[in-house]
Amino acid sequence: xxxxxxxxxxxVAVEAPPDITLLDLLRDYLNLTGTKEGxxxxxxxxxxxxxxxxxxxxxxVLAPQAEGCEIVTIEGVHAADGGPNDLQQHFIEYxxxxxxxxxxxxxxxxxxxxxxxxxxTRAEIRLAxxxxxxxxxxxxxxxxxxxxxxxxxxxxx
Length: 157
Ligand code: FES
Ligand code: FES
Fold this sequence. Notes:
Layout: E1 2-7, E2 10-15, H1 22-29, E3 48-51, E4 54-57, E5 70-72, H2 86-93, H3 103-116, H4 122-128, H5 140-155
Parallel strand pairs: 1-5
Antiparallel strand pairs: 1-2, 3-4, 3-5
The structure holds FE2/S2 (inorganic) cluster (2 copies).
């Protein structure tokens, strides 16, 4: 079937079977491999993307459910010059990245939170990351990086 939606700000139309997941559509049909597959059963958050402003696990969304939606993946998160944005820079600065498998999902969770709540408390940051598992970092540095980004964005004119 033909599926049409907005992907990282651009209109896309793709022919794909109706019974695949959005995760597989992104990775296998659109070659956007930044979104990771961890558990494939909705428990790890590695596959998280933003769908119409809400964080979703793309392994739990059927591809046809993207029809007419606005989807943002990790490839759509960057600075104006194409380099890392402030959140990604803070992940680097705070040592919030180790093996990296969880990081695209963590960045999407952080972006989704900061778009909805520019003033998150640390408890709210932790709650926003509740669906994203990391086996490496212990989460502290990730929370620090998101908190620093929130402060930086609030300080911008
Ligand atoms: S791969 Fe989707 S939640 Fe784990
Ligand atoms: S950095 Fe390895 S799972 Fe998070």
